[in-house]
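User: I'm writing a short report section on ligand binding and want a predicted complex to refer to. Could you take this sequence and phosphoenolpyruvate and write out the structure as tokens? A short remark afterwards would be nice.
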Amino acid sequence: MIIILTPDVAEDGAEVAAVLSIVARFPAVTPKVHAYRGAEHGVVEVHLVGDDKSVPEEPFRQLPCVVQVVRVSEKYRLIGRHGARIDAIGFEYRGLRFGQDTLHLFPGLCAVDTRENVDKMFAALARAKIKTTRAGAYKPRTSPYDFQGLGAECLPWVFESAGRHGIEIIAMEILREKNIDEIVGALRKAGNPCGVFLQIGTRNAQNFELLRYAGQQKEFPVLYKRGMGITIEESLNACEYIASEGNRNIMFCLRGVKSHLGEPHRNFVDFAHVPVVKRLTRLGVCIDPSHSTGRRAVAPDGLTEIHHVTAQGIIAGANMVLVDFHPAPGAALCDGPQALTLEELPAFAEDAMKVRACYESRVAKT
Ligand code: PEP
Ligand code: MN
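Assistant: Sure. The structure tokens for the complex follow:
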């Protein structure tokens, strides 16, 4: 059972105490208080863990500080919507709102390679008035002989360049706990010029220890990428690990699933699951058109297939687009074949916003 309190009550205030005193009458359950910041207000929930069948809802409903009492299954208890009974609340980070009703573009480098390319990428974003990007320092590569990313050494100049170009957030994959410390250290040294989304890649989608670490820290939101070869239910359960450790600032990323049926794309594009994840969970949904299609093939209408699937994801209600760009894709050290060029960025961003406007106008009529 989840008991949701009125907005902005204190975690240790009289309202929570009133709920807890009722819970104390039922020894079969243990209360767990969850407090977090939504995009618009603070949210406090009291979760009853254990067998709550014999616990009545009425005594809680009678308290003026209680807005909702929801009986939930154990399944994705924190991230779930439990049959549309709980709203998505989103979160705010670096002055930007993220949730199921916003859209942010994160075009950028799959892997950081040179200072010049980082500067060129960030300058192109600034010209397009985009403050959010992706930039990989730690790269999980299929072959140990491929470029593994520059690691911690590039962080000082990546963050410095971000500050110079007004970039607010960088989505950056982490491979182990130590990477979080390296990112924190480099950001502090640079004077916190930008923020970071900790990206959990598809290869770590069920690395439960890493998910726990990402959930134990509350400084950075987490971008969780679905597992490439597991069910959506398994990915959502894995994502719940992050929330269960206390961090509810999560975006769930669809990046395609491994199947020969997707060929000639790198993965089978799964953006039909955008509304599904929004229905099942309280999380905002990101799409990754680059890692799902894996190539910048051009359709007969003159548009890249990356362009097409991006539009498909946005019209389905996506809240974030993680997409690879590179100043010289042919020379990129990682995933060059799927990178768009900087010259393509303005039209890509403009088209994405046009599709979004179309989606919003349709939703307004429902
Ligand atoms: C990436 O975004 O750079 C990446 C490696 O993606 P994925 O984990 O989805 O393969
Ligand atoms: Mn990549």
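A remark for your report: DSSP finds eleven helices and 14 strands in the chain. The chain has two domains: 2-72, 92-364.
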